[in-house]
Specification:
By secondary structure, this protein is an all-beta fold. 0% of the residues lie in helices and 51% in strands. The strands form 2 sheets. Strands 2, 4, 5, 6, 9, 10 and 11 form a 7-stranded mixed β-sheet that branches. Strands 1-3-8-7 form a 4-stranded antiparallel β-sheet, with no helix packed on it. It is globular and about 40 Å long. The protein starts with a strand and ends with a strand. The mean pLDDT is 96.
Length: 114
């Protein structure tokens, strides 16, 4: 199993980013997928989950209304569109496989700062 995140970077408050997670080594559309983040000096925080068929999406209250999780099963890729970013969103963002968060990528850094 390999999960490779990309798309992070430095963005000003109010800006947007689209994160991607390229998956390989397993049947991507057999599994729910998640985004999780870790802010500096804080613990892991679950961000969003999407079912295998994109039929259900669930979001953390802290980011609800500002993010959209999606997936392209043909490309084995997971996405996270983030809008209206705030300084509190600064974190390393990880994609994680299945309900048990069995596998993680290396993460992509998102820094929100003016």
């Amino acid at each position: 199993v390999q999960l490779v995140e990309s798309g992070g970077g430095l963005v000003q408050p109010g800006g947007s980013l689209r994160l991607s997670c390229a998956a390989s080594g397993f049947t991507f559309d057999d599994f729910i997928m998640n985004w999780v983040r870790q802010a500096p000096g804080k613990g892991l925080e679950w961000v969003a989950t999407i079912t295998w068929d994109s039929g259900t999406t669930v979001y953390a209250e802290s980011m609800k209304g500002r993010i959209t999780i999606s997936r392209d099963n043909a490309k084995s890729t997971l996405y996270l569109q983030m809008d209206s970013l705030q300084s509190d969103d600064t974190a390393v963002y990880y994609c994680a496989k299945d309900y048990q968060l069995s596998n993680w990528g290396q993460g992509t850094q998102v820094t929100v700062s003016s």
